[in-house]
Amino acid sequence: MRILQISNYYPPHIGGIEQVACDVATSLKGKVEQRVLCFHHEKGDVRETVDGVEVIRAGTFAKVASQSLSCSFGRLLKKTFREFQPDVVIFHCPNPFEAYFLKKQLKKNPSCKLVVWWHLDITKQKVLGKLFTRQSKWLLTRAVKVVATSPNYIQGSLQLQSVREKCTVIPCCANKARIFADETVLARAEELRSEYAGKVLLFAVGRHVPYKGIEYLVRASKFLDDNYAVCIGGSGPLTSELKKLAEGDAKVHFLGRVSDAELKAYLCACDIFCFPSVTKNEAFGIALAEAMSFAKPAVTFTIPGSGVNYVSLDGVTGLECPNGNAEAYAAALRTLAEDDTLRKRCGEAARARVQALFTQEKFAEHVDRLLAEL
Q1: Degrees to nearest 5, angle at CA 222 with 221 and 226
Q2: Which of 112, 125, 220, 295 could lock 347 by a disulfide, CB 3.0 to 4.6 Å apart?
C-alpha cells in the first residue's frame, strides 16, 4: 500500500498538526510505502528524508489568515500523484489552499482512497470558513474515513455530524521523546524547585494567541497571593499585551520560547499545569496530555465541542472552570494547591489516563486499525 500524507507543515516545524502527521508517519514506517507533502516555511522547494520518511516541502511566499500560500504546491502534488500513485491520501484539515489542488487530483484518480484527518473547524476566520464550507462538504463526502481526535469534537462539529457514520476517533498521543526526562532534565527540575522554594509553582506553555487563553491565566494570577509563582512559556503576537497586563504582578514570569529539555524540566518541577485555552481552536491539547504524563493535575476551562475536556476530566485528572472566568480559575488553582491529597490523586489519575489512552503505542494501534479498515 502506498500512502501520501498531506499536511500544512512537518517537523522540525513544531505544531499540533505537524506532530500528528509525524506520529502517523512513525506508525506507518516499515508497513507501507509513504511520502509526506507539505509547505516549506521559506520560498524554495525542498525534498528530503526525515527519520526515514520522504518529505516534499513546497516553498511558500505568504501567509494570509493563517493559510500558507505556495506557487509550487499544485505542481508538486500533480507530480507526486503521477510518480508515486498513492492508494490512500491522508489529508490533514483544515487547509483550504491544499484542498483546492487535492480535489483536482482526486477527481482524476477515482480509485485513490481519501482519509480526512479533521483537526478542527475553522472558527476564527469567518470569511475563509464560509468559503471552505462547500469544499469541506466535498472532501467529507469523498472520504472513506474521517478521523477526529476526540468524541467531543465529533459531537460538537456540525460538519462532522453530517458524516457521523464515517467518523472514527484517534486521539493524539504524548510522544515518547517529548515526555522522557533524562538526568539532565531531572537535575534542572531540582534547580527550579530550589529557585521557587516555598512557592506553589504553576506552569503554562503555548503560543501567545487569543484561543490559548493566556490572558485569563494572567488575570487569574491577580486573585492569588504571593505564595504562588506563575511561569509562562512560549511567545507570539500577544506577548507584549500579556506582559503589559501582568505589570505590577511579580508572581508572573514570562520565559519566552523554551527548549524541549527546559519544557520537560518545568513539567517535572511544577505543582499544577495550567491549560487556559478558551475556544474550539484547541481541538485536543497535546501539551495538556504531555503534562498529564508527568503526573501533573491540570486546570482547564469548559470548552463546548473541544477535546480538551476529554483529555482532562473534571474532578478526576484536574479541575474545570466556567469558560473565561479568571476568578473561578484562580479558585480552582487554590483548591488544588491547598489540598495535597487531591492534587496528588488528580496527578496520578492524569498519568494513568495518558498511559491508558494517549501513548504512542495506543496511537499506532489506532492507525493499524484504520489501515485494516481501508
Answers
A1: 75
A2: 295
Strand 53-59 relative to strand 46-50, pairing: antiparallel
* Run of H or E residues at 1: none
φ and ψ at 360, to 5 degrees? -65, -35
The answer to whether 119 and 283 have CB atoms below 8 angstroms apart is yes
- The cell for 343 is 492534587
Rounded (10°) CA dihedral 361, 363, 366, 368? -60
Residue type, 284: F
Average pLDDT estimate for 143-157:
94
C-alpha cell at 52: 526515514
Nearest partner of 185 among 294, 317, 272, judged by Cα: 294
For the chain, domains (ranges, CATH) are 2-173+359-373 (3.40.50.2000), 176-357 (3.40.50.2000)
Q: How large is the average pLDDT for residues 335-356?
A: 98
The Cα 46–Cα 42 span in angstroms is 9
* CA proximity to 276, closest of 304, 252, 250, 308: 308
pLDDT at residue 343 is higher than 80: yes
